[in-house]
Predict the structure.
Amino acid sequence: MSKAAELAALIANVNKGSSLAAKNFIQNGSFQVWQRATAATAQTDGDYKTADRWFGWVSGGGAYTTEKSTGHLADTGHENALKVAVTTADTSIASGDYYAITHRIEAQNLQSLQYGSANAKPVTLSFWVKATKTGINTLSLTKDDSTAIRMVKEFTINSSNTWEYKTMTFIPDSSIKTAASAIVNDTGRGFQLNWVLKYGSTYDGTADAWTTSSHFTTSNGVNNMDSTSNTFYLTGVQLEIGEKATAFEHEPYDTTLKKASRYYTEIARADNNTCHLVGYVQATTVARFGFDVSMRTSPTITETNFGILYSTGSEQAVTGVADITQDSQFVSFKLTTAANLNVGEAVVLYANGAATLTFDAEI
């Protein structure tokens, strides 16, 4: 795109209700933040595994991994990408099978779209993709709040294992402009975007039409799961108001990290005896943690390999974690140990070798 065309597109989008800053509704679209893991991890159904804010759907006889891939700056303008690698092929997709890569957007971040009103705004999705299989691929955008309604789009991979830039626009129709299609101003799920690797015939529908049916693909889509030689890469994902794609909105790493930390925060240590939290003993040991960024909702807490050091100088391994009280800014939780501690003792929580303490508030 020439500079003149880019400027014209930007102006057109601003006229549609976009802004010059914070225009991208996608978080971690350049795949900069990987708090959980960067190495290939077997993807399980609906579970966040690697890149922050991105997860996979897996249901059927096939399997794939996701991992961080680097070295794509010259081709795409983005150093990192999400790599999907098929590890177990599914050459015969059953009607109810599904495989996809998914991103969800919090509902209150989408209020500027004015869905549910006569002024509902169009949005344009742009991204870089590289895949082994050529041919028609599909993705779907679902508005989940209130009445769920979605649209399927098709795009074509023209050359095998070659980076290609794709754009597509979702235009609101009369069904989006009714009150039943409003996006509630809350912390729930507003949008869900699915890049389809392959869905079964149960989910086939028509491209470019809004529907309340469970249509996430079309019958034209290729099967990206049919060989263990298949890979699928994604980066530079942007969703913005307007009918034209504009240049990707690059942001500082710490900005992306703060956005991601609203949904997932992790303390990870590889060394011994590093103090992290100070607590005390009631009936059980209690520790309190404050978040740098308010989490979307009260998080699920998971602990691995932390220990407790208490006032007598003794140490106890943590055998379990359960929350007592929590909100989006602070959490107080109890730590179970093998031995009973004395009420009133001060304690510290420390890493006993490689240790993690995670707080999960994903949509």
